[in-house]
Amino acid sequence: MKAAVLNAFGSPLAIETLPDPLLGTGEVIVDVVAAGVAGYTAGVLSGARNYMLEVPIVPGPGGIGRVRAVGPDATKLKPGDWVYCDSTIRSRDDAINPDTILLGWTARTPAAMKLHRFYHHGSFAEQVLLPTENVTPIGAITPAEAGRWTALGRLLVPYGGLLAGDLKAGETVLVSGATGGFGGAGVAVALAMGAARVIATGRNRKALDALVARHGARVVPAAMSGVGAEDSKRIADCAAGPIDVVLDFLPREAKAAQVETAIKSVRHGSRVVLMGGVRGDLALDYNWIMHNNVVLRGQWMYGRAVVPRMVQMVRAGLIDLSAFEMSEFALADANAAVAHAAEHAGPNQLTVLRPDR
Predict the structure, then answer these.
(1) Residue 54, Cα to own-chain centre: how many angstroms?
(2) Between 181-192 and 152-164, two packed helices, what is the crossing angle to 10 degrees?
(3) pLDDT for 183-202, tens place per residue?
(4) How many CB atoms lie within 10 A of CB 292?
(5) For domain 2-151+324-354, which architecture applies?
């Protein structure tokens, strides 16, 4: 099979011919049709993000494709099925505390490196090997539609966060960092789940206005200045009432104080879900959190059952994949795709690699 291979951190992706993956029990081989390219891919491939992965490797977490072959224990999947390839792979020998990797991307802990070495290559290739449970049917689509369906990888992350935050229809959500890829997707998912109002925060006013234009009056933009008192007042003014859930997607460059501003904006008995990349210690007011019954939790990725539920939301029209602006690249142009993704990392922009071309 042809694949885009990272042979050393900081080197360009090389298009090489690798052996086809070999099928085992409990596994599925998928012919990759489309793979999303994240805006921060260049930082992963350069080593700047210090992701735990070993080279050489075919990068690429997740994608859309068609089943080529299934193991003897698969009872529903069959060759030819259109599927979503979920990159979140969990070890099967500890249901309570599994070791976890993102296929072709990173291992969470040193203990997960054994899993990373077995399920090693990702979706920037013509074929990919996955555990059976990581392959979810999406129903019939045309090859031309496959690129837009890679948006599932963007949407599933905030969906997992909002489910962890127990979002209920009619509630008000604050999406902190709404102008990024995952934050912008969080706005769309919160609305699809029935949020009455979504306060979208960020420093890029143009991107915030675009979210309003795309989703309507239920989205209220709150441009942030980085000054705590000013931002707190702006959030309160935009909310015009209690904030029930905060979904934090602030990037690595953000300060912990920005997270604290969002946390302090919530009502009594609210929920705060941290999913961003902030590096720093939070100065939390124990007494305030306790007396206000605030639930503060971290959430990394999402559970298995979330994937088919998101597919159902798309099929029901609650999520509109056509709202994403998409640019596609052939496998041979993988490096151009990485550069393009870095320059077009807005909340509704998709960069897609097409190994089928």
Answers:
(1) 22
(2) 60
(3) 999 999 999 999 999 999 99
(4) 14
(5) Alpha-Beta Complex (3.90)
| Tokens 């042809």 sit on residue | 2
Distance CA 321, CA 324 (A): 6
Domain-wise residue ranges, the chain: 2-151+324-354, 155-298
Angle at 262 between CA 214 and CA 100, to 5 degrees: 80
First vs last C-alpha separation in the chain = 13
Listed in sequence order, the residues at least 6 apart from 227 whose beta carbon sits closer than 8 Å to its beta carbon are: none
Question: Chain centroid to CA 79: how far?
Answer: 27
Using CB atoms within 10 Å of the CB of residue 225, give its burial: 0 to 12 exposed, 13 to 18 middle, 19+ buried. Answer: exposed
**All residues at 6 or more sequence positions from 122 whose CB lies less than 8 Å from its CB, including other chains:** 35, 57, 58, 59, 60, 61, 62, 87, 103, 104, 105, 128
pLDDT, residue 333, reads 98
The whole-chain average pLDDT of the chain stands at 97
- Is there a contact between 159 and 56 (Cβ–Cβ < 8 Å)? no
**CA atoms of 200 and 223, how far apart (whole Å):** 8
Q: Write down the pLDDT at residue 337.
A: 98
Q: How far apart (Å, rounded) are the C-alpha atoms in residues 70 and 32? A: 15
Helix (H, G, I), strand (E, B) or coil at 219: strand
pLDDT in tens, 19-43: 999 999 999 999 999 999 999 999 9
CATH 2.60.260.20 at 155-298, yes or no: no
Determine the Cα–Cα distance for residues 71 and 131; give it in Å rounded to an integer.
Answer: 9
Is-same-fold flag (2-151+324-354; 155-298)? no
Enter the tokens of residue 25: 């029990």
Euclidean distance between CA atoms 295 and 333, whole angstroms: 45
Percent residues over pLDDT 70 in the chain: 100
